[in-house]
Amino acid sequence: MRKMLAAAVSRVLSVVAQKPARRVLLSSCNFSNKATFEMKSCDLYLLEKGPPVATVLTREDGIKYYRMMQTVRRMELKADQLYKQKFIRGFCHLCDGQEACYVGLEAGIKPSDHVITSYRAHGIGYTRGLSVRSILAELTGRRGGCAKGKGGSMHMYTKRFYGGNGIVGAQGQIAETYNMAALWKLPCVFICENNLYGMGTSIERSSANTDYYKRGNFIPGLRVDGMDILCVREATKFVADYCRSGKGPILMELQTYRYHGHSMSDPGLSYRTREEVQDVRSKSDPIKLLRERMLSKQLTSIDELMEIEANVKKEVEEAAQFATTDPEPPLHELGFHLYNNNPPFEVRGPNQWIKFKSIS
Description:
4-stranded mixed beta sheet, 43% helix
């Protein structure tokens, strides 16, 4: 009995001893501090030169980008699950597959810059500073959501981010916007996230000219590999510097791909094949590409990346738990936050005999 007890204690102690040993192993790894990577050159329009075709990635930035892209991916997959469980209702447009666009964009601009976007905004909302908890809670319509549960998937906001507008750049309006921006030389970067499909129609079937980076006509443009975070980062730095120098607006097309359908009501397989989606996943996945680059230059290790993934999974699961248990906003708050700095006024509720008082 005594021998059995001693053996059991020995096994427990050996397991306990292994955990800190793994951390010591990670911290003592001889990682590189930075590495240089080549990228695809961008297609240019009305520009004499474009972004560089090589860039330096530090270990610190690489780890940060990897964690952010993993978080967006996990968050969107969790949103898919919550929608199917009927915790999320209404519209829900997921952006998994397009992570490099959002993380690369944020890496190339300043926190003080302003970003306005249409729907499919969960990822860019996260990179702009929204927490996973506030995004998932907004999707489930809870008080802890970033818009207090009133906006849902298509209306998310944080400081200097105005996102999830339901209307994309319709041709009439965008043409007028290009014109005014060029006339006034506004420091504005127009971004086309070209995921190859407008709802369920491929770009080849809907556009006589699929060179969207040339659609500004008199506005310079460039087409970027939107699946490569380093390419997006460097292109974003380039267009931001272009605008800040007083040259006026510029148009950037990010060639990317969405893994889900247009929205949760679209299975995404009636107008494209499973083989097409799998081919993109296997050859051009943005997370996989960054992982392989970092490992090839000893910027990280498999163990470290697995630890990051485990921590991200835990964070998303905890956020989902909050998003499904946090209370919904009470009915009397229906009229809150309609206007900014307005005196209180009466708002008719869903029942014509019930009135609520607005609060700014």
